[in-house]
Request: fold
Amino acid sequence: MRKIEISELKENFFETIGKEWMLITAGQEKSFNTMTASWGGIGWLWNRPVVFVFIRPERYTYQFTEKNDFFTLSFLGFDNQARNTYNLCGTKSGREIDKIKETGLKPLITENGNITFEQARLTLECRKLYVNDMNTDSFLEKSILDKWYGGNHGNLHHIYIAEIISAWTNE
Ligand SMILES: Cc1cc2nc3c(=O)[nH]c(=O)nc-3n(C[C@H](O)[C@H](O)[C@H](O)COP(=O)(O)O)c2cc1C
Reply:
């Protein structure tokens, strides 16, 4: 993988996050977890390049994003292998299965000790800057609250804003 300047990123992140999806991975070589995510964003805040991701506290990955200062976003592409990996990492928990063994993902360790995967066409390594819980009173459109947090959908997401500290591509 080749390290690139963040300013070189020319992705349409509406498509990349919303349609391609991504893996959020946190932890170190001896203990980490990864999960699929398709909600989030990339932007500019506090004069830094940042990502926004949203993780429900019931995810096993949450324990790792809470404990660690960093996480990575790995974008795997659209091929069949990528779809299979995303589907498995988005429906099964690392509490129940070994996602690395089941998917054939090959971990790569960054110079900061964070984990991405050989299969990623693009990786963003991120350092947490701001975390907070969503709050029911802050929803101005109550239908969103009902649709995504009603019934057995799960708990309110935890919000992470993190600085993109490095980017790699294999393209
Ligand atoms: C396409 C897709 C997108 C998802 N996006 C998110 C997300 O943005 N935030 C989240 O908390 N869960 C999201 N999930 C659900 C988690 O990936 C799923 O619950 C996963 O099994 C959690 O694994 P873990 O328990 O090992 O962390 C998504 C699942 C899929 C299939």
Observations:
- Residues 21, 33, 35-39, 54-56, 59-61, 90-95 surround flavin mononucleotide (CB under 6 Å).
- The chain has a mean pLDDT of 97.
- The CA atoms of residues 33 and 61 lie 5 Å apart.
